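so the lab meeting is tmrw and i was supposed to have these ready like two days ago... anyway. pasting both below. for each one the top line is the aa sequence and the line under it is the structure tokens. i havent really looked at them closely yet so no promises
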Amino acid sequence: MIKRRSLLLLGIIAVAVFGLATALAGLLIHFNLAYGTYTYDPKTQAPPTILVDGRPETSVLTYLNNQIQQTGTYPAGAPSKVALLEPVAVRIGSIYTDSQMPLEVQVAIHYADGSLHDERFQFTSGGCLGAELGNLAVSYQGRLRPLERCWQAAPGITNCD
């Protein structure tokens, strides 16, 4: 009887350890420890809630859809109407900060005439929680906010606040 319970307990512990190791491995695959950045594919993945309180690509898509409703396309003056907005990559910038977390969303803008334009939208979280680990400040739980305005910083790069 005791042997059976011990084996059952060992089995439960093994499954729990395997589950935890699998979850941590999934997190570490996308996390760059040297730079403190986390990247993911928004089509198939979501950011860990410990890093941000939502999906950064949603903030960008909301802004873009509002702009398209106002001007008919994006950016203003584009040769054709937008047919599809497709977020293709998200980078949660360095967590090694004590204030706002930098975010970057890469969006493929498909136009009705068949052309394609890639744009990177860069912005910061509306604040975040932080902790100090010795001399290292670490941010987590970045709070997302609506994007109010964006401007072209360079070809293919748009900054927002």
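ok protien two:
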Amino acid sequence: MITQGEVAALEQRRQAEGTRRAVINGLERDPELGFVVTERNGAVLVDAGKENGWTGGYALGMSGSFSEEDADWFVSFFVQRGIAPRTNLNPFAAVESLNVLGQRGFVPRAFENLWFHSLSEVAAVSFPEGIRIEVVDRDDSEMVEAIGDLVAGYEAGKAPESELLENARRSMRIVAWDEWCRLFVARDAGGTA
């Protein structure tokens, strides 16, 4: 049977690989994006802009070890770009990662619960009557941009910072371009998304 640590490692690597691939596919379609991605020992670092939620380290310490050299690589990647290094460190990451990052002044900012469920035990999802889920047409640039606005926290009459808004729109365009990703929208009976 697979252990919790193995499930965590698989999920962290899935997130790292999915983000890496989405950034690379986005750059192939639009080299002007200027995103940067690098990887080492199964970990992936992404620079998608200071305010972009994709910017950060993925799967750090999930390969079973985390050395001083790994920490130097992580920190220098972001410092060279003028971005504060950040990552979500999984509780199943190598213990050395806590020590090595702690020695460099990193502290926890937030804690999240990890939850997983065997797919064999998950019943089909049912939605309330009148709610339908639709796949967004990747060529529908207006809808893709609207989803980017939602991601940026846009509210009618109150626009977010322009850099944050453009980063969110750019990120959604990358997801829409990636053949392995899909965007979904939920609509009510009146058609409101």
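from a quick look at the 2nd one: The chain has a mean pLDDT of 77. The helical segments are 4-29, 68-79, 95-103, 141-151, 162-177. will dig more after coffe
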